[in-house]
Amino acid sequence: MNEALRLLRQTAADPPASSRPPPHFIKHFSRAAAAARLRSPTSSPAAAARTAGAPLPSAMQKVRLKWVKNRGLDHLIERTTSIRASCLLLDHLARLPAAAPVPARSLAGLQKPLGLTVPVLRFLRRHPTLFAEVPHPRFPSLPSFSLTSASHTLLARLADASSRDAHLRLARLLLLTRSRSLPLASVLPLRFDLGLPYNFAAAFPSSHPGIFAVANNRISLLSASGLPDDIAVSALQRRNAAAIDAATYRALSRPPSSSSAPLAFPMRFPRGYGSMKKVKAWMDEFHRLPYISPYDDASGIDPDSDIYEKRNIGLLHELLGLTVHKMVRRNAIRLLREELGLPHKFTRLFTRYPGVFYLSLKCKTTTVVLREGYERGKLVEQHPLAAVRDKVHYVMRTGVLYRGKGLSKLVLDEDDADEEGALDGEEEFQGEGMDEDADVECFGMEIMDDDGPADDEDDEGNSDG
Q1: Which residues on neighbouring strands pair with residue 132, listed in sequence order?
Q2: For labelling, which of 25, 49, 85, 179 has a CA lying 20 to 30 Å from the CA of 113?
């Protein structure tokens, strides 16, 4: 009995040669099956990743590039850091009772959250046009400060410029997340970058009750019905909307890396990198991958695939585009990593694509800049809030140059755009120095990855005082 069962199983597993199809028949049908798979609509990597969630073959050959220092962008980061510290100090002092001046020692703990490389007392004394040093009513020898008349004028303008579309930037940030909600502790470090008012957690739910809600120290987006129709359209899609709608067959047949092809990331490589054949071939393969909007659901895509990496590049591109100055600190992005679906070592995305991002180590922290946001040292698309902050820097520079006589030299009219250029030295940014002449190879500095020691732990959650 056992011998008969064994013979039956062997016959079923290994049919006789007479019943097998000939070799040319098997070869013909295997080729036909392969051709059918190529013709099927789910044969593309994006479709296969969305439907089956199978891992994609990593065919894109990545090029390892050296980090290149950009003096022009580093100068802008230092400038923005000073403006950030001044604006946050102005907000902090404006919320305190105005009956008595504020002692400097009560502000000493804000040095690290503000990102200052000098003590707070030295920073306050360096800008007398914003912060007036007055004697304390009870302790005359105690350094104390109050706001000047120029500070009150700038605070009113900052509040007016911030109230225009700050809720739209916050709504887009929440739409980028998986749950459409974020902890308040994760949004606070981005308050200056997004141009949010200091009381946004209470002001937005009351002014937009059907859109925002705050519960359990989390701010959520309830509905996007009262927001513009393009609220969930990325900046890259809005910029190329006309090209996509009116695209001809010849334009669509061009390589996606060409400037005339729609939905191609603008690339501004450091000097010498853009002409390398390996880099060109790599970027051609990168742009041939399908573009996935950062507002779309990407849960069905393999996180280890090249398509998901391009989705992450598009998400970080959109996040930096939401900021006023097109730059953000790496620590602030780390707080959003899980909600945005970014990998643990997301810093490699910045160093791997230096044509899109610039990673800087200035001001004792790590800052990411969107390269396409600046041209010759100026913002390509300047927000009204950025123009008012430029006025803050103009007032700061006037105090540095003229000290006690700075208030008499100020011109705070609405159309005095040339005043800051005369004081700030725009001659530093003449020519194409931002991405060509200002790039210098720097081999002595090291960009630490996310699993290394944290060199920029600023505790930015307390930056609002």
Answers
A1: 146
A2: 179
Say which residues have a Cβ less than 8 Å from residue 154's Cβ, sequence separation at least 6. Answer: 90, 130, 388, 391, 392, 395, 412
Tokens of 287: 């742009």
* Residues 306/58, Cβ–Cβ less than 8 Å: yes
Spell out where 71-180 has E strands: 102-103, 131-135, 143-147
What are 181's strand-pairing partners?
220
Among residues 320, 50, 313, 90, the alpha carbon closest in space to that of 190 is found at 320
Distance between CA atoms of 68 and 219, rounded to whole angstroms? 38
The tokens of 262 are what? Answer: 């729609």
Burial per residue of 165-175, b for 16 or more beta-carbon CB atoms within 10 angstroms, e otherwise: ebbebbbbbbb
Q: 3-class SS at 88?
A: helix
Residue type, 85: A
Mean of the per-residue pLDDT values of the chain = 77
Structure tokens at 150: 């120029």
Task: Give the CA distances from residue 215 to residues 68, 138, 212, 312, 456, in Å, rounded to whole numbers and listed in that order.
Answer: 44, 42, 10, 29, 30
Count of C-beta atoms within a 10 Å radius of residue 106: 12
Q: Which residue has the tokens 């997340």?
A: 177
CA–CA dist 312, 289 (Å, integer): 13
Q: What is the pLDDT of residues 234-254, one digit of tens each?
A: 998 888 876 666 555 555 555
Q: In the numeric block, which tokens belong to residue 168?
A: 């739209």
C-alpha–C-alpha distance, residues 208 and 219, integer Å? 13
Half-sphere exposure of 414 (CA within 13 A, CB side): 4
pLDDT (tens digit per residue) in 58-67: 456 666 677 8
CB 327 within 8 A of CB 369: yes
**CB-based contacts of 246, cutoff 8 Å, min separation 6:** none
Tokens of 406: 């700075």
pLDDT band at 323 (very low <50, low <70, confident <90, very high): very high
Structure-block tokens of residue 227? 């927001």
* DSSP string for residues in 273-302: TTT-HHHHHHHHHHHHSPP--TTS--TTS-
Which of 464, 461, 383 has its CA nearest to residue 198?
A: 464
Distance from C-alpha of 57 to C-alpha of 41, rounded to nearest angstrom: 18
Q: Which two tokens stand for residue 45?
A: 């990597």
- Three-class SS state of 313: helix
